[in-house]
Queue: 3 jobs
Job 1
Amino acid sequence: MKSDISTIKSTDISMQRSVFWQPRPAWIAMGLAAILVLFPMTQNDYWIVQLTQLMVYGIFAMSLSLVWGYGGILCFGHAVYFGMGAYIYTLIVKGMIPGFSGILATSIAGLLTAVLCVSLFAVVVGYFLFYGRLKGPYLGIVTLAIAVIAERIAVDWYYIGGYNGLFSIPPFSVAGYEFITPIALFYFVLASSAIAYLLLTHIVQSPFGAILRAIRDNEARAESFGYNSAQHKIITFAIGAAVAALSGALFAIVTEFVSPTLIGFGLSTEVLIWVALGGKEVILASFLGALLVRTLETYLSELMAYYWILFLGVFFVAAVILFPKGIFGRWLSD
Amino acid sequence: MTIILKTERLTKKFGGLTAVDHVNMTLSKGELRCIIGPNGCGKSTLFNLITGTYKPTSGRIAFKSKDITGKPVHIIGRMGIGRKFQVPGIFNQLTVYDNIRVPFFRDQRRSLFLKPRKDSDIHQKITALLQKINLDDKACLPAIHLAHGEKQWLEIGMVLARRPQLMLLDEPTAGMTAAETRKTAQLIRNISREEKMTILVIEHDIGFVREIASRITVLYKGAVFKEGSYETIQSDEAVRKIYLGKSR
Ligand SMILES: Nc1ncnc2c1ncn2[C@@H]1O[C@H](COP(=O)(O)OP(=O)(O)O)[C@@H](O)[C@H]1O
Ligand SMILES: [Mg+2]
């Protein structure tokens, strides 16, 4: 039997607000997009560069929102994907990987290869984590160990720059056009943010997203319906890793520099904080969380030298207690 | 009558404790059966063995004449065994509507990354189910805000959505008022009659068991102690002694 939307009543509201939901956040996202599009016209290069970097972190935060907020996978090593994305991109465009030359060493090829390799890596890691039924603190410890190991490898591996990292990454170029000016880079990263946001939002609103939240809420129940939770988590892990790798590669593009700190435990915990503060169960809130915390860090470190980290700690604790769903999560979810 | 479920010398040990002890049980298609027994006698463990949550120490389980011993949970779920947990197994953060909706996604032919067609008849099915379990006016509410009894009904609805051939209900009236308990008994009887579903219910509440008036299996210390109609069980001295006498 076919039903026309206009003839459906009462319970249909739930249908539109649940899986078909057209969220109010869509309005906020559009408003935010408009502000971001106009931003370069009102500000000087310094702030344009700043915001470009913030958006890179914002994409990274959105990828963790999918994995942690929707998938319920508390991952303490998410920066491994970010760092791998940055390194793989850099090694390719600098022509440092034997066999990758000519068209395979272009910026686009570098970006695609980085995203692809990292998500394959996440599938392998996820296979062992989730078919091994690791959960909660155990999952946290294993992912943390992976981050520590990855950072050690990056520090000790001379070929990829070791402790100092890699410099002078050539500019991102497509068909002869080079993204060099702050404005060009800004819009490039803004477009990437929009794509990542739309992709992730689509995923969490699809049936797959509903099943994912169901697994997060009650894994045994979801499995008794015939859903393979390990498989769903691996797919989620891979998508999260792909988006994290994209943000890592963007970081390399924007800063023209990669170092072992991008891949380790430090950045992994930082992104957890951004996402927890912003609101892990809302993609856009996580994006804003990254922007807010990074901005605060910059301001506070200028304002009060060494004490800023203390202040940030207090702010973090207060925010988590006052807003368990995140500072933005409350008004961005329906 | 065709046999839908058969356990043979099914046994589960936790260390030195034998929670389920050589249980032989046969369920016919369309039957409504109650399992009773004092706390800790292995009722939930028996369910966990049937659904694949626990692997048996020894013995076999056959469902629709297929050996399902030791198969993973999601495979057994797909084969047609639905289960209601003792602690309400619902998705707290999802709306009541979405709780019922999640099991339906298994029927979706399109990729799960695409939104379902708006003209699909799934919506009608969900609405009908919500009416059956008396929650149609709470469809938009996150499930966590439901009253305890309503959560139990929601879970029964979720299990029904999969249209299982065998439905296992673990203490569906736990924590309910007398009125809610009676309503639940009616609901289960209706489902049994209208859907021709085989139902296996664990219950503590003897009033509920009387209301359902079905065949009863008494479990004691992990083993089958007695089997029969409500009247036989109710008048059995030994059963009274181990169970009825000290029921709540
Ligand atoms: N996972 C487990 N590990 C160890 N012992 C268990 C486990 N699950 C149940 N038991 C024990 O098995 C016995 C039967 O438990 P259960 O099946 O839950 O009883 P019932 O549902 O009949 O009240 C109890 O003594 C319980 O403590
Ligand atoms: Mg029990």
Note: Residues 149 and 264 of chain A are 8 Å apart (CA to CA).
Job 2
Amino acid sequence: MVGDFAVGKTSLTQKFVNNVFSDKYLTTVGVKIDTADVSDTKLVVWDVAGRDALSPINAAYLAGAAGIVLVGDGTRPETIKSFAEIWQTVSGKLGDVPVVVALNKRDVDGWEVTDDLLQTSIQSSWAVFETSAKDGSNVPELFAALVDRINC
Amino acid sequence: MSQIDELREILVGGNAQEIAELRERLENLDQRTRDVAEVLAPAIGEGISKDDQLIEAFKAPVSQSLKSAIRTEPDSYAEILYPVMAPAIRRSISQAISSMLVTINQTIASATSKEGLQLRFEAWRAGVPYGQLALRRSLIYRVEHIYLIDRESGMMVTEYTKAETSILDSDAVSAMFTAIQSFVQDSFSQSEDDRLTDLKVGEYNVWVAHGSKLMLAAVIDGDPPESLKFEMYDVLDGIQSDYAQQIADFDGDNEAFGEVSGRLEPLLQLRAREEPDAEADGAQSQDEPQTPGTRKVLLIAAAAIIALVALYFWAVAANQRLVTETMLAQTPGLAISNVSWEGDKLRVEGLRDPDAEIPFAKLAAHGVTEADLEFATVPFRSLQPAMEMTRLQGELQPPSSLTMHPLEGRISVAGTAPVTWLMQHDARLRQLAMEKRIDYSQLHADTATVLDYIIANYSQALPARQSELLAQLGHQPWHKVPAKTVLQLK
Ligand SMILES: Nc1nc2c(ncn2[C@@H]2O[C@H](COP(=O)(O)OP(=O)(O)OP(=O)(O)O)[C@@H](O)[C@H]2O)c(=O)[nH]1
Ligand SMILES: [Mg+2]
């Protein structure tokens, strides 16, 4: 799980793994690891601390990853614009790995995802989901798509 | 032309010339060498790419010639191998030193800490050498879990566990180890060599052995001995070299590593080897399930009984030591500096006069037999009056008319003694007096025995001699009798 800080990486993981959601924001330090079974595949999910102006994604935590969930906050376009920079770190370390994109917080008012933004920030090979960690919409689909891409 | 030649001419015709050339080629050794040299390299290449047979065939001769080459030219091979061996040797030495330091630190810590003192006390009470007990103590540990982890991806290759209670998801744990590893390297150190090797979580020690591709993490309950680390590295190195291909191909599918968990098993059995009781205990509790409540009560009762028994033995042992110490301290000819339990023997240290009589009979009354005692004493001569008395009595054999008793640090020899005895011991008596060991100011010659002496020493009775001698002996103490007289008489 990679993306800017507070976009909902931890929230999506927790919703998916434990089916819980909290409004409280506790920023992730370092990395938190969870596991989940998706049909026959066991996912070990590395919920990495978010990127911000001061701290880039820690590439060490990307080592060996089989796939990537790029998470952006649909109400903060700059978090989606960051994908380019994040992808540079990721592909530099892992090459062309399977990627799914979560445009998160779909339930919140003030959705600011425009076609133009998608055009410039998202590569055609990536599968994009508009998700909500709060109501759970598209969360299982997001992870299922990642597993599909890893397995094929 | 013979018929044969004719026939050959008909069959092969003009080729006879070529055949001759071919034969020449086969028979000329130089030519043949050149021919083989030409095809040797491509032939070997072909052979190796085809199957393993050629490699097999080369194995023995190559290794043999290598061996003999190394033997004859060790220096040049050392030079070639140095860049390969040196880092490995360095690494193993630094590992050995660092683990030695840990052991030393542990020993120092345990020798001075409260636990260490407690252990000393227990060792003393049980009559077991401290080192032995400390060693046994430090062996009480249990390896609960072993994870074999792919360093690159953080994925678990395989695991082995003893505990039924695996609370954590092993895949998550493996990933976490790797994450912690990355975190440590990222936060504390730039160097690849600075790795997390030890980690403590509550009562648990987590030890990590790092290989080039895999890491082996052991979750241990208690404090294991350092040697476990070496065993971990042994297992890890073995797996890495035997499964090199599978490790390189590892993509999260651990089917290829099915057999590997068997190799981890010996690491888990370590504690059972040290403590067979634990196994027996486990087996019993399976037979008759007990509620935690009764189990607790039983445990407390057992602990109380053990404590009482221990206390009893401790009291007995302490008493025996005390009794021995007091009795020996009171024994003339012994100067005791220390009495202590060493194993099942009471060790007596100090000075011991060879003439001292150890009161074995009295000690036996307190349950201390001669076999229980071990004397680590330095021989000396005791000047204690009692010892002096015995010694002098033995040496001088004084007649019953004499009395001996301690007087102001010396032995007073008093009374009247037959002249014969006095003459016999004269020199020794004077010497003892000079050494301030005896006082013989109250020692007199028994004048009635003068005649006996003269008769015994001179064939005829000489009245003149007798009166002369009597005059000299007079009624004065023996030490006032001039030595000349004694000499004359002799
Ligand atoms: N309404 C709503 N709130 C969300 C959603 N996802 C996350 N949040 C909230 O956003 C805040 C940040 O969420 P986190 O999941 O902690 O974000 P993160 O990406 O893990 O943040 P870092 O660990 O700091 O990088 C929290 O207060 C969450 O409750 C969502 O889908 N809807
Ligand atoms: Mg987080």
Note: The longest helix of chain A spans residues 139-151.
Job 3
Amino acid sequence: MAEYALKLTGIEKTYGTTIKTKVLHGIDVSFKRHSFNAIIGQSGSGKSTLMNIMGTLDLPTSGVLEILGTKTTDMNKKQLAVLRNETIGFIFQHHYLLPEFTALENILMPAKIKHGRITQADRAYALELIEFVGLTQVKDNPANQMSGGQQQRTAIARALINKPEIILADEPTGALDSESTDKVYQLLRDINTTYQTTFLVITHDRKVAEKADRIIELKDGRIELDVVTKSS
Amino acid sequence: MLSLKIAARFLFSSKLQTLLIMLGIGVGVSVQVFIGSLIGGLQNDLIDSTIGSQSHITIRSQMRDERLSVSPSFLSEVEDISSEIRAVSSVLEGPGTIDNDVGDSIFIRGFEFERANDIYRFDEALISGDIPEHDGVLIGKDLAEMLAVEIGEQVRIVLPQQGFDTFTFEISGIFDLGVASVNETWFVMRLETAQTLFDTNQVSAVEMQVNDVFATTEIAERLMEAYPDLRHTEWQASNQELLSGLEGQSISSLMIQVFVMISLVLGIASVLAITVLQKSRQLGILKAMGITDFKASTIFLAQGFILGVFGALIGVGLGLFLNVAFTQFAVNPDGTPVVSLQIDPAFVMLSALVAITASLLASIIPAKRSAKLSIIEVIRNG
Ligand SMILES: Nc1ncnc2c1ncn2[C@@H]1O[C@H](COP(=O)(O)OP(=O)(O)O)[C@@H](O)[C@H]1O
Ligand SMILES: [Mg+2]
């Protein structure tokens, strides 16, 4: 197994064809497996753009991305979809649950995409995750009939169902109150210790960031600061 | 399976919209089923009234005016040639005139009524009197009117081919076979009577009816094989107008169906195109979770399929209901339906299948659009 969960070499991103806006200026950075990383920076500094590229949701204008030692450059859309499904879990600021499905069904969806059906093991693991994120009471609620915090915890459980190596979270508590925020971060940290999942979390919250193993600050599309708070 | 499940949920989550489009498809299919049954019924009525009491295939001698010797077993032998042959009857015929000032032409036809009734239904066509038991004759209502005769009265005829001898017959019944030329000229008697009259023990022709009037050619070919020295004619030879009438109806029916289908396809396509927009957020997140573009597009094909299947079911139900309602309410004064509808299960199935196929076709464009939808647009504009 590769040493790094993610390795970025010279990643650049330019938006627009006529009026070009360069958003990322040659990012070189690697993230160790099992580490918990925070990405901070002002609004518009390129955090989301970077994370979307790391998650293969968006393509860099130039540069190379390696996920668990595999270059993504030559992979086609289908291969990328499979890679995302099996190795990356996403948590967004807006939870993006499927409102047509219940909490449990939402959590099982990546597994269903992976296997074409839901295995006994998937179901057992989903129930374990539901327990873990504290949703047992509401697991059969339609996704849009839960509180914001519950919805976000559902999204977290969904990100975990396929036991992904990497979790990418873009301001996962941006839409939550401070109490829920604390709960969610504690949860992410617990998952990191329990399941050894690599975390990259974009956050506004310095307090949250300080609990990470490593903090990276972006400024105008460049890495301004890279602090390792505790080595893993 | 995943696509089908997601599609079902998507449809179920916007119930009203789903119901409306299913109804739309249903109405389209019901129009098809109804028009199809109506045209089918009209055609059957037309076929029935035109050739229902005619010979469908007639076999005669190769030589004009030469008669056939028919043994008693011959007719059942012909009947056994194909199970499609439902009636076989022999006839001895010849021209004659009424012995009056005008000298009205008549067409003398001698039948074995037990067999001939299977083709001409004289028993049902009688408006008065009975089938002759001895030497009586049946004449059409128009001839009876022209001659001003009634049951029991005598008619004298002249046979030009028998040296202008005259013969007298008692009228035992008057029929209405629904065709003017028949009602005006036929002079119907028992085969034995005709054989005595024409002084022969032969017959002129063997006539038959078949179950499917459009399958005569095949049967005629078999008859030819079995009786190479006989000549056959099929009903089509003398019913060109009927054939072109039927064809015209079929074409106009097809046109209606095609246009109904086109409007269906357009309707479904536009509704599904809107669903792609409505569900773009869901599609984006499904793609982020690793659903492939192809799988994503099959969600919309599945939606088209589900809409098609349920729409078709609604349509078949509604169409059959329309048929029943039509036969209940569009009736003649005597209570019989104006047109007796012809519900053809194969055609109903076909309409349903066409609707499902059309729905699938209509969902191709939305499916392609959903495959192209970019995740990043959705995530950004969340
Ligand atoms: N599709 C786009 N077209 C043009 N500019 C964009 C697009 N998406 C993002 N940007 C710009 O890129 C910059 C970085 O955006 P983003 O990565 O969202 O920053 P952050 O997440 O740090 O707030 C911003 O200036 C934003 O306006
Ligand atoms: Mg952002």
Note: Residues A 47-48 surround magnesium ion (ligand 2) (CB under 6 Å).
